[in-house]
Amino acid sequence: MIIDINFIGLIIASIMASAVPLILASCGELITERSGVLNLGVEGMMIIGAISGFALMTVTGSLIIAIFGAMLAGVLISTIFAFLTQTLITNHVATGLALTIFGIGISAMIGKNFVGIPGKEFPVLFEGLKDTIPLLGPILFGHSIVFYFAFALPFITSYFLKKTKIGLIVRAVGDSPESASNQGINVRLVRYACILYGGAMSGLAGAYLSMIYTPQWIENMTGGRGWIALALVVFSTWNPIKILIGAMIFGGLTIIQFHMQAIGVRIPVQFLTALPYIVTIIVLVVISRDSRKIRLSTPSSLGKSFHKDN
Amino acid sequence: MIKIVKRDQPSRAIFFFTPVLAIFLTLVAGGLIFFILGFKPFEALKFFFIVPIADKYGFSELLLKATPLCLIAIGLSFCFKSNNWNIGAEGQLTFGAIVSGGVALLFYEQEGFYILPTVILAGAIGGMLYASIPAILKTYFNTNEILVSLMLVYVSKLILDYLVVGPWSNPEGFNFPETRQFSDSAKLPLLFEGLRIHAGIFLALAAVVISWFVFYKTYLGFQMKVSGFSLKTAKYAGYKGKKMIILVFLISGACAGLAGVGEITGPIGQLHREISPDYGFTAIIVAFLGRLHPVGIIFASLVVAITYLGAETAQIFMQIPKYTGQVFQGMILFFLLASDYLLFFKIKFMGLKK
């Protein structure tokens, strides 16, 4: 059997493409969690980004407005979460759940008029170089700008957290809000910023789904990716580089089901579709079993409210 | 001038007042949304909240929808009171329905008094089994129960899909994704001629009474309360944390499983693809809105059930998308959480003083 080497390249590229929304949302959530805030609303913010991007693209015709609009929509919806958890000191878990339920509802409401409308073609970069290098050509070239951004993001995030002063402040706020506050850092402000940033990245992840990956609007089209992104943050033990690995595994699982169906493996399609969710559970178990390691890498104040008395 | 002062003690009066405030604020915000969408706000709210329950049939539908919400929320209150975040009740409902549906299919075209109790019990066991997964993983493998229970929701829906499309699909069903009709002995009896409300409501009421008793009259209820306030205190008092975690998950799984039984053995009488319009998720809101109190949960389940009916009526009469229901549900929780601020802080309005 001869396997075209470029075909393998194409498969890897498609795995990477399906990993993009996970990387974006996870890296955003990672920053939020590093500041000590657990935002379970990723799924909701993502779906809001998806409908906003698609709607803006259809209405304005501008891809740039659509992409940035989706990020802005993510920021706006996460502002609700930030206001509730930081200003009104509500429970993170409950507020995040409300955000997801609300987001799915709102997106379906707005999306009603956009069902069945075909998407637009999103421009890709370096299309011509695709055939120049075997195997690597299709992996490296011919992708959207969001794709390249997503694969740079874990490295940028890592650099930001480790090497920049603001990154240090974010980590300080997450690990010990009391001492950060005593050092004169405005804990609430930092957390607000981190939540809104997470919202922007989730919004972008959603826009990628509805504008680039499968250019159309389908209700509930995020299909649990927001939750898998949350699981990936735990998987990564809050290390951005490991998000890349995790996202590739999940991207791989998604793509493999298509190919297994294509070559006629006789496993019910539902079992293949369930695979990413089951693997998420298994991976979480394996990662969390070592409770000491998890405790060391989890931001100490994660999910705990901080309120400074005047 | 407005000044915010921390209360010495959370206010008990406000504890029960804020859910009402939250519902009121949701109505205001909902009216605003309808206005933005280009409808007359009052008329839309009327279609949403009053028209659906104006007649006998509507009221029966309200109880029909409130039953699973109440049942699941009662179960969840066990988890939430003791700081266990089971958000996968939808999965436990689905799995309970699968197990009880499977048992009901075993008794296909058979009659007997023992069939219904067996079917109901199977549903509770199914829900418990499914809830035991996140519970065991949490207690023995330190795994986050939020993510596990949620992932299992997707898995359970896919299992159901596989069964009703594949091995369990009705042989005479022209490939519709549904099973055969259960025999009459496997169905919960309907309470009134021509209405869909069924005996499942008694399961919910029983759950209310039992939970009230457990919460306020037993040592277990006390332990749960203490663990909810502070895990450290619970440990210091020597409570067996692991046992309790598993127990509360099993209880809430059983309740969700029973809700699943009600959905398939009630008016529908078969397994099909979409047995629950996200009751398991909505019940989380019900549990909070009811303040994790059995009686509160009854009221909350009725209020939230209206959003389901209202969304349907509004869709028929005003072409408002049915997802408005979910928007309302999300808003109720937002406003409830927000108004909890008043529990801990007083807002003082003071005159301008120099």
Task: Give the tags.
heterodimer; A: 310 residues; mainly alpha; ABC transporter involved in vitamin B12 uptake, BtuC; 13 helices; globular; B: 354 residues; two-stranded antiparallel ribbon; 14 helices; 2 strands; 68% helix
Summarize the helices and strands and which ones pair or pack.
The complex is a heterodimer of chains A (310) and B (354).
Chain A: H1 5-34, H2 42-60, H3 63-87, H4 92-111, H5 136-140, H6 145-163, H7 165-175, H8 177-182, H9 187-213, H10 225-235, H11 240-262, H12 269-288, H13 291-297
Helix pairs in contact in A: 1-6, 1-9, 1-10, 1-11, 2-3, 2-4, 2-9, 2-10, 3-4, 3-9, 6-7, 6-11, 10-11, 10-12, 11-12
Chain B: E1 2-6, H1 12-36, H2 41-49, H3 56-81, H4 89-106, H5 115-141, H6 145-165, H7 200-217, H8 219-229, H9 231-236, H10 241-265, H11 279-289, H12 294-318, H13 324-339, H14 341-344, E2 345-349
Antiparallel strand pairs in B: 1-2
What does it look like?
The complex is a heterodimer of chains A (310) and B (354). With 310 residues, chain A is mostly helical. Helix content of chain A is 72%, strand content 0%. In chain A, helix 1 packs antiparallel against helix 9 (187-213). Chain B is mainly α and 354 residues long. Chain B has one domain: ABC transporter involved in vitamin B12 uptake, BtuC. In chain B, 68% of the residues lie in helices and 3% in strands. Chain B has a two-stranded antiparallel sheet. In chain B, helix 11 (279-289) crosses helix 12 (294-318). The longest helix of chain B has 27 residues, at 115-141. Classes of the chains: A mainly alpha (310), B mainly alpha (354). At the A-B interface, helix 4, helix 10 and helix 12 of A face helix 6, helix 11 and helix 13 of B.
